[in-house]
Amino acid sequence: MDTSRQIARRLLEVGAVKLQPQTPFTWASGLRSPIYCDNRVLLSFPEIRNEIVSALAGAAGAMDSIEGIAGVATAGIPHGALVADRLRVPFIYIRSSAKEHGRKNQIEGRLEAGRRYLVVEDLISTGGSSLKAAEVLRAAGGEIGGALAIFTYQFPSATRAFQHAEIPLTTISNYAALLEEAEQSGQISAEEAATLADWRRDPRAWSDAFVN
Ligand SMILES: O=P(O)(O)OC[C@H]1O[C@H](OP(=O)(O)OP(=O)(O)O)[C@H](O)[C@@H]1O
Ligand SMILES: O=C(O)c1cc(=O)[nH]c(=O)[nH]1
Q: CATH number of the domain that 107 lies in?
């Protein structure tokens, strides 16, 4: 079994994937969606967490000269810190906005201008959170070696956004693998599969059309 399917299996195993077509989730982007994949749950299972970190660190290790990890707040922080620890490289994290008290930082940790960072995020929907963090990092003088996440919904608009920002995106699992795994293991009903197929054809239209 390939890594993306194996990780998808783990996501289902820990109950990270929730379906609520009648009472949709609101995503960070504001989109409403029948599905939510909560990668934070993986952190509570040490063996599975170890498997995830190994896959992320393996992917990061295969990239060209990554000199530091930049976690995206909040869910990218624990995964990113674990990967940085495994690779023995510096770690920083990027808040969605600057703190309003204390040192008023948006980037926490010691950023070194010119250092090549890998942006680590738990999940990519629109890609907006990771790309915003990458922008903040670039503006502060950091180089971006790429972005790495556990899961992506594989939206073509997200792919284009990463290409436009010239940031190569790598993920260790994805929506197609999740759907295959859920269908083959019988963890999704025909009705749920139909809802997801309908949603996936045009997530924005599905979101806009949803009436409470
Ligand atoms: O690709 P995007 O459209 O930006 O969506 C993905 C983001 O949404 C979630 O963050 P959220 O801000 O909801 O929660 P968190 O604080 O737990 O990271 C997730 O952790 C990603 O950061
Ligand atoms: O886009 C989001 O906010 C989002 C979607 C999802 O499935 N999981 C998550 O943690 N965030």
A: 3.40.50.2020
pLDDT at 16: 98
Q: Residue of the nearest CA to atom 21 in ligand 1? A: 123
**pLDDT, mean of each 10-residue run, the chain (212 residues):** 95 97 95 98 98 98 94 98 98 98 98 98 98 98 98 98 98 97 92 91 93 62
Q: Which mutation among 37, 96, 122, 157 tests ligand 2's pocket best, with the greatest number of atoms within 8 A of CB? A: 37
The interface predicted TM-score (ipTM) is 0.98
Domain that holds residue 183: 3-188
Q: Where does ligand 2 bind, in terms of residues with CB under 6 Å?
A: 27-29, 36-38, 123, 125
Find tokens 């992506």 and name the residue.
152
Using CA positions, which residue lies closest to atom 11 of ligand 2? 27
**Residue 203, in any domain of the structure:** no
In the chain, the number of structural domains is 1
DSSP, residue by residue, 13-73: HTT-EEE-SSSPEEPTTS-EESEEE-GGGGGG-HHHHHHHHHHHHHHHHTSS---EEEEET
